[in-house]
Amino acid sequence: MFGWAVTFLIVALIAAVLGFGGIAGVAIEAAKIVFFVAVVLFAIAALVGVVRARADCTVASASTFERRGPARYRTGPRLFLRAAQ
After folding, report:
1. What is the pLDDT of residue 76?
2. CB-based contacts of 37-40 (< 8 A; 24+ apart in sequence)
3. Which residues of the chain have pLDDT under 70?
4. CA-only gyration radius of the chain, Å
5. What's the CA gap between 44 and 47, in Å, rounded?
């Protein structure tokens, strides 16, 4: 999304330099909208990630398997040693 915002910003700057004020205005407004939507979506994703991480760590009755997930998502010395043998 930030790529789209930068694209609209570049289009706006080029249009402004060439004298197309109307197109530049529309492009800069589109860049602002896309940028703020991207920031809001990033904030929501970060908040959800923090909440999920805390929920995984604060469950007292969960076993290690339930907290850490299936073995295919874990990396550690055991996996490397098993592969080396």
Report:
1. 54
2. 37/1, 38/1, 38/2, 38/5
3. 56-85
4. 23
5. 5
